[in-house]
Fold this sequence. Notes:
The chain is an alpha+beta fold. It has a single domain, classed as CATH 3.10.130.10. The chain is about 25% helix and about 40% strand. The protein is globular. This is Si:dkey-237j11.3.
Amino acid sequence: xxxxxxxxxxxxxxxxxxxxxxxxxxxxxxxxxxxxxxxxxxxxxxxxxxxxxxxxxxxxxxxxxxxxxxxxxxxxxxxxxxxxxxxxxxxxxxxxxxxxxxxxxxxxxxxxxxxxxxxxxxxxxxx
Length: 127
């Protein structure tokens, strides 16, 4: 039971960090600085997926939308568009805003008979 709560928290954290509502739609640095500041800029690199893609994102953790890469990491069968923002820790100053289109690499864990994403892994292969 304890681990279920832990992983539910990990899934909730994944959603809060990577699939939040209200992200700026463009590349306006002021809008992103305001958004990042309101959420906390303790992580210098943050990637944001479109909330409308949530079901596709969850499918990466299944044969339907992904395949195992190694251990609990799965890679999506198709590319996803997302925004990666690099900011200054503490000041939240925006360094870069990049729109990317890559295969997602997600850490997945089984929760209540469903395998769900709990971590967004950087895709340095650029695939």
